[in-house]
Specification:
By secondary structure, this protein is of the alpha+beta class. Helix content is 45%, strand content 27%. The protein has three helices and four strands; from the N terminus they run βαββαβα. It has a four-stranded antiparallel sheet, covered by helices on one side. α1 packs antiparallel against α2. The chain is globular. The protein starts with a strand and ends with a helix.
Length: 104
């Protein structure tokens, strides 16, 4: 598949570390996303990645491989916006909403 996609994904081990945190495991996934060179952003709940379907799914796959190497059980949630012919939407979608809010 060669369509452009924004994927919002959340990945974490099934159990927290000794302090009750998932941060170290999530940070490793974010490192993989950043190293991919694809447009991305991370917020409190998800990491968003934009690119061609195969590129984005490969990055998410690498995150799964890295996390399952260290944890016996992993939770992954993925939501995709597939819009062929549209790039740069990671920022453009937010800008359109901000423009409407500025007008009101």
């Amino acid at each position: 598949m060669t369509a452009e996609v924004i994927a919002a994904f959340s990945i974490a081990p099934a159990g927290a570390d000794d302090s009750g945190s998932y941060s170290a495991a999530v940070a490793e996934a974010v490192r993989i996303v950043r190293a991919s060179g694809l447009p991305h952003e991370t917020n409190a709940m998800f990491t968003n990645v934009e690119g061609e379907w195969d590129e984005v799914m490969a990055v998410i796959g690498r995150c799964v491989e890295a996390m399952t190497a260290d944890h016996p059980r992993v939770s992954l949630v993925v939501k995709c916006d597939i819009r062929p012919g549209h790039t740069g939407q990671l920022a453009a979608k937010v800008a359109r909403v901000e423009d409407l809010l500025a007008d009101s």
